[in-house]
Write a structure and sequence with these properties.
With 695 residues, the chain is an alpha+beta fold. A hairpin with a 2-residue loop joins strand 8 and strand 9 (224-239).
Length: 695
Amino acid sequence: MGSGESPREEMPARDAWRVPPGELLDLLSVSAVVLDDGGRIVFWSPQASEVFGYSAAEALGRYAADLLVQDEHRELVIKLFAEVMGTGASWAGAFPIRHKDGSVRLVEFRNMRLLDDRGDVYALAIAADQSMLQQVETQLALSDHLVSQSPVGIALLDADLRYLFVNPALERIDGVAAADHIGRRPREVLTLLDVDTVESALQQVLITGTALIDQYHVGRTVVDPDNDHAWSVSYYRIDGPGRRVIGVAISVIDVSERHRAAAEADRARRRLATIADASARVGTSLDVERTAQELAKVAVSDLADVAAVDLLDAVLAFRRTAGSHEGAELFRALAVASAYPTEATSAADEVGHIAAYGANRLVTQCVHSGQPIVVAHTSRADLLRIARDRAAAVALARAGVHSYLAVPLIARNEVLGAFDLLRARNPLPFDEADVILAGELAARAAIAIDNARWHESVRNSAESLQRSLLPGLPPQLTGLEVDACYQPAQASSEVGGDWYDVIPLAGDRTALVVGDVMGNGIDAAATMGRLRTATCAYADLDLAPDEVLRHLDKITRGLEHYIATCLYLVYDPHRHECRIANAGHMPPVLIPGGHHPQLLSLPTGVPLGVGEDHFRTTSFALAPGDRLVLYTDGLVETRHHPIDERLNTLLEILEEQHPLESTGQWLLNALRHPDDHDDVALLIAEARPTTPAGR
């Protein structure tokens, strides 16, 4: 059945006059009594028996005054009867009558004269029990006041879903006058609501008779089209006698305040969840770009549809001076994130690129003032002050960007850059609550970004020092080819004190050294430099490997709380012999030509700086074609695997032969993770045949 159909069965046109009777006359038990001109009862309706108690047989033919009127009222009744019959004037009022049961009751009368076609005169009395009449009048008056003065919106619709009645409260709720409701359907009045849902509910109630209680609707009205309202709506069918369907009643309670309070509470919960999420996800590493990307990702999609992080290039380079700043600024784009694929991201600066923005640009004003910039509703002119150029502004407009927020990234009283947020699909403009949340996220991230940039600065300094202290390309050696590489830590730890050295000695011999100063940072790198210098000096004295380690141990003990591990090896190409001593270092790997790699079993010794003189020199053969791999512990040690397991993995990987010049990088790729927390120094040496010329 469609929305315009009635649940009542349609009647043929010839029976259109057979409309269902009303109920009010039956409820009041309105009776009719007719008297002739002598006062005798000649007609008696069935309802008269209910009002007066006498049956028709008992009443017809009798004088009404004798039957119904008390003696003391007889004279007055006869006088009133004569006036009605003589003048034709009607009379109405309440009069006490004698009921059959002997009681006296007030009856409401409407008396009038009747004239038939023969000129005979009669009197018609229409009567109803006054107590019943007053009860009905009271109920009607009460109902009328309850409906008209109720704060609950009430409407009655007929079976065709057309408004029959609307109370003042619903007028105010709908923002439409009652007269403009009557005769119209909901879809013609509630133009800003989901009227399909409303009419579907009305049809369901009409058909089933089952009420729908407390249906929640959210929408906007013609009197307040810019703000959402919420209503609790109930639908129930109104049935008459014989289950005749009169229509559907609607009651509407405005619960907008409750809706807004619940929405604000939900928004507050989401804000707390976002902050908690940011606490867990932002600042997981001491990497500036990664931290910026974490901040951008945590902002979408609850806070923004698109988020970007731009840092001042001078801040990243530690060139920015204190004090006020004016004019254009150079920004380096560090991160862009979006809640969904959108053209707005293509309008943002590409990550890693530097862009100059003038003083009139909103992001520049944000970093100059150190205050948030909010544009609740962006215009075309606003987009030109947000985007990098005119084409990007057009792209933002096409993407539906309608609201903008920028908050400064401030750490230790220094403005580092800006956190930019855009809304397109989210229909709500940025408000004060969003500014507070974005500021909280920016404050937390700014500290992490500042820590990361300082860490990177110190790390870069340490790495520069480390690399400056390491030797350059290995020299041309007799009977030995050497490749070396160094890889600093890639994760949060600073660079350490790993080093290697290749030292030519007299008699075509070569000293190979690999060491690791425990600790990290510039101090560890400086200590490494001192030990390397000392190693070169002692190597020139042609000392045995264990004696070199003893001297290095004394030097290390003189340093502040530093210890180091070290392997010192001297190779004689004419005897194809290596003499080696170990100070607590990882065992080297020997790869005999055509055989499996093996760990050399050496007296371990103790690290330099411990102060126990337990160093020993041992010898092993290194024939032409044999390889030797010296490394620091960063190559094999991890936080999640036993060291024996990792050493076995190293041997398995070395089963596959690679050119000498690529072996070091191959080992790093195979064994190292990008987030490993230690440096690696590697020396790979291969014995070569000697020639007389080489001697």
